[in-house]
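Next up, sample data:
>
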Amino acid sequence: MSNHTPGPWILKPDIDESVLVLAGDLRIARILRSTGHVGKNRALFPTPAMAEANAFLIQQAPEMFDSLLAIREIMGSISPEAWTNRHGQLLATIVTAIRRARGES
């Protein structure tokens, strides 16, 4: 069981052209966009296109997580005779992604 905030998560423009990722009234993330200046730690902020892509990726995280859980379950029902090395590699990748999303090692 995951403890993340359930979806759906939505995107909403914020002040200074940043983008908020929200679950209802709960703020999940604030994605900053480049204003052409260097931040306090001398790191550049993402370009507007990168910030938008990051926001879309974060917004879809709950749905992608649920999809991985469903795929893992479906793959578990495949008969051993039908398995190939590729099936095993894919399942290992999915299990690793699920563990990381849950904060497990």
